[in-house]
User: Which sequence fits this backbone?
């Protein structure tokens, strides 16, 4: 590992403008610099670099960080690799406190991947299978398709090349059983799986000997977490940002064939269902999400679950179902590219898909079944945000052919309704004032807490617990926010407290769960506090 001291001394040499300007054309804009963001397609620059704060932030796609984050993301390097590259650029010598163990571990999988690729070329069964599926030489190389030999051959290869076998076990490429070491991948076509920073972390393998398990994947390991990764993401990443689209399939061959046909935003889950763990990755660049799933029972069930999750998180996009036993790979092989194009252009929206799926499980000609369908769709509707509830209330009524008032939606509270659309400049300006000088935070926390923020509670909480979080850079660099003097800042805190106490007063006055005496006491206290505020005293919330 690179020592902390040498990382610090490297950091002290870095200037964010200098580093980024070696990759992008930066233009001066006031105190900052601007460029078109390299991480999402745009024609008017919303990528801002601040020399004063030594950070960058894109107001379009939300990426941001310091010099190191930039290079990591731009060159798709791991953290140590980035440090090494920067050290080279700025002539800084790094020191290490071990023998680079982490680099060693990735090297085992890299070497095995190379071995598997070499063996693939000499194996006719593999080549025949892959060719018969329609995969070209170009795709074989692009996706580094390989062949894992008999168990003993893999073990011998590792031994002969002096790889650390216990490390190989930790990485999930081999394991130990009753009769000693064995390979995880035996006589299988291999599909290497890459992490986000383009490092190989595991394999998927398809049997060519008719083994019961058609596909197996590397087990969870210290470098491989299958519920957070997507197959092909490292190859699709750039296109996902540029085209603002991601196609999610369930098969490795689907990904390869879709890329082959020019649908280069295709990725696949790694033999697992799509879960909320995948969402942070999918959200990157805010693409429109297209779920491309099989029309068989398992595929429909998986699509239903995935669409439900995505609809809860307000993702844009929809579902494309491949029926008649076909999958995307088959369609590419049959050269039905135009048809695929049309399908991807018109996916069925997630919410409509979920509602239709629920209704399709009932016979709606039968009044009792219709009633059940209504109850179940209602339940789903209630989990959505209020705007969608209202929109899809009509949709359900039409589909079930019932009157609209039978479809119930949650009453939207005022706060919720405002929250949906509004940002609050005063609250954000307070946050910015604290971010400008982090030592202000303690003093502020003596007076207010996050419950007093109406719109930006989440940001305030992040600020309290993780003030360096890059998600706050957008506030720091937002020029629309006011710059407060100390006096103005205190005035804003007074306003915040005043609004909070007055809301509290209304709340207590009409509270159902308090008796008269309790109410009177509390109201008196609140009014006392408000009086103090009126004479300009900042007092802590202490009811
Ligand atoms: Zn951007």
Assistant:
């Amino acid at each position: 590992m690179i020592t902390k001291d040498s990382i610090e001394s490297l950091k002290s040499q870095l200037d964010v403008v200098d580093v980024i300007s070696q990759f992008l054309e930066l233009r001066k804009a006031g105190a900052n610099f601007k460029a078109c963001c390299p991480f999402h397609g745009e024609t008017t620059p919303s990528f801002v670099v601040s020399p004063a704060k030594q950070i960058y932030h894109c107001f379009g796609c939300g990426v941001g960080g310091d010099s190191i984050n930039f290079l990591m993301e731009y060159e798709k390097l791991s953290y140590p690799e980035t440090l090494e590259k920067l050290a080279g650029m700025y002539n800084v010598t790094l020191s290490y406190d071990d023998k680079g163990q982490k680099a060693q571990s990735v090297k085992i999988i890299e070497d095995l991947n190379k071995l598997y690729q070499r063996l693939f070329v000499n194996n006719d069964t593999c080549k025949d299978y892959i060719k018969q599926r329609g995969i070209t030489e170009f795709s074989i190389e692009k996706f580094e398709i390989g062949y894992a030999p008999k168990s003993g051959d893999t073990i011998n290869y590792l031994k002969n090349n002096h790889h650390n076998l216990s490390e190989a076990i930790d990485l999930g490429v081999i394991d130990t059983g009753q009769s000693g070491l064995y390979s995880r991948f035996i006589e299988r076509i291999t599909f290497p799986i890459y992490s986000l920073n383009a490092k190989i972390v595991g394999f998927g393998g398809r049997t060519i000997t008719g083994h019961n398990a058609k596909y197996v994947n590397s087990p969870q390991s210290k470098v491989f977490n299958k519920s957070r990764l997507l197959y092909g993401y490292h190859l699709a990443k750039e296109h996902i940002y540029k085209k603002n689209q991601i196609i999610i399939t369930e098969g490795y061959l689907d990904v390869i064939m879709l890329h082959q046909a020019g649908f280069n935003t295709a990725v696949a889950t790694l033999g697992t269902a799509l879960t909320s763990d995948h969402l942070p990755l999918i959200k990157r660049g805010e693409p429109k999400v297209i779920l491309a799933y099989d029309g068989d029972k398992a595929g429909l069930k998986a699509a239903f679950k995935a669409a439900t999750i995505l609809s809860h998180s307000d993702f844009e996009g929809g579902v494309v179902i491949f029926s008649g036993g076909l999958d995307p790979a088959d369609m590419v092989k049959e050269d039905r590219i135009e048809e695929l194009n049309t399908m991807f252009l018109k996916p069925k929206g997630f919410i409509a898909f979920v509602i239709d799926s629920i209704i399709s499980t009932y016979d709606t000609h039968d009044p009792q079944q219709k009633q059940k369908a209504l109850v179940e769709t209602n339940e789903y509707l209630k989990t959505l945000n209020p705007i969608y509830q209202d929109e899809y209330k009509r949709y359900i009524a039409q589909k079930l052919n019932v009157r609209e008032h039978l479809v119930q939606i949650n009453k939207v509270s005022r706060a919720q309704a405002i929250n949906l659309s509004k940002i609050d400049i005063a609250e954000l300006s307070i946050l910015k004032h604290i971010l400008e000088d982090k030592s202000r935070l303690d003093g502020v926390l003596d007076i207010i807490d996050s419950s007093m923020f109406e719109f930006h509670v989440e940001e305030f909480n992040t600020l309290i617990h993780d003030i360096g979080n890059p998600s706050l850079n957008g506030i720091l660099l937002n020029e629309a926010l006011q710059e407060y003097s100390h006096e103005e800042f205190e005035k804003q805190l007074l306003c915040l407290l005043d609004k909070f106490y007055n809301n509290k007063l209304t709340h207590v006055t009409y509270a159902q769960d308090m008796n008269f005496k309790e109410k009177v006491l509390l109201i008196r206290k609140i009014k006392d506090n408000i009086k103090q505020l009126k004479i300009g005293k900042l007092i802590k919330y202490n009811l």
Observations:
- The two ends are 51 Å apart (CA to CA).
- Residues 412-421 have pLDDT under 50 and may be disordered.
- Residues 486-509 form the longest helix (24 residues).
